[in-house]
Amino acid sequence: MGKRRRKRAGFWLKGICLILLVPVFITTLMQRMRLENLIYGKEGAQEVLNTIDSVEGMEREVREHQENKKDILSGQAETQSGDSKDEDEETEMKVLQIVAQEIGIDKSAETIKAQCVIARTNLYDAMQAGTKEPESMPPDQQQELWGENFDKNYQKLKSCVEATAGETLLYNRTYIYAAYHAISSGRTRSMSELYEDADMPYLVTAECHADTTAEGYLSVFYYEKEEFLEKCRAAYPDAGLTELTQIEIVSRDAAEYVTKIKVAGETYDGEQFRHALELPSACFTITEIDDHVRIVARGMGHGFGLSQNTAEKLAKEGYGYREILAYFYKGAVIGQAGNL
């Protein structure tokens, strides 16, 4: 009986202990769960924060890349712009040296400016076509030519080049053949009279009355008859020339330049003949006087395009360089080089 009571008392004691321990267990479990949730929640929050940081970092890298790309592109653009600027400066320096070769520095500023546009036009045309560029005068030759006036003359020429920077003569959006010469016969020539198929409608006759009184307008040469024939034979060795009567001027243009000449039955170009005999112009006459031959030439140069002498007269009358160019190149317009 006593043994049974002790067993029952032990059972109740365990039950009571179990009942007392369950809340503690549950509380502990709940605390642990809250703690784990809290921990995991913090880790999750940290993961979110890490993700945000990662995204922001990526965006920052993208922005930096884009900025770097912009800097690179900007640098390339600046380099290209710089290269283009360097090329332009180099070309303008060429223009200066070409103009120094083509016209006397004693001419007025407007005449020199007109020559700058001519030189630049012919230079760009040659560069575009891949042909020989106009002859130029490098600085050492300028120094030799101008001597103690080098600085003054150089600055004058430089200011004319800068005043016309980039300007060229265009016709139908192409560079024209900007022909020029020192002195005409009294009027300039029309290219279509010499070459019927020449597409140069801007090279037409322009009156140049001032040229007829210019220094160097008239050139007279005397040869002994045999001496003259020898010069002609040297120029045309296959012609079989024996007599002066075998030389005959066939045709002239409206400005009186010889366009065709016969030598022992063969017809030649007037310009070719004048170069062969080293005459200043193809506007010439040949006259036999006793045992001598007299050649009278008028003007200096081929006679096409701008006459530098008349351009100077126009400049002194108040014409600007654009007006001077318009006088000689009918229908041509001034446009910026490289914008074709």
From TrEMBL:
Swiss-Prot/TrEMBL keywords: Membrane, Transmembrane, Transmembrane helix
One Pfam family this sequence matches? SpoIID
Where are the membrane-spanning stretches? 12-30
Report the residue ranges that make up the Sporulation stage II protein D amidase enhancer LytB N-terminal domain in this protein.
95-171
The reply to whether Transmembrane figures as a keyword in the UniProt entry is: yes
Question: Would the keyword Translocase turn up in this protein's UniProt record?
Answer: no
Q: Which GO terms describe its biological process?
A: sporulation resulting in formation of a cellular spore
Which stretches does the entry tag as region Disordered? 64-90
- Its name, as the record gives it, is H-34
Source organism per entry reads Roseburia intestinalis
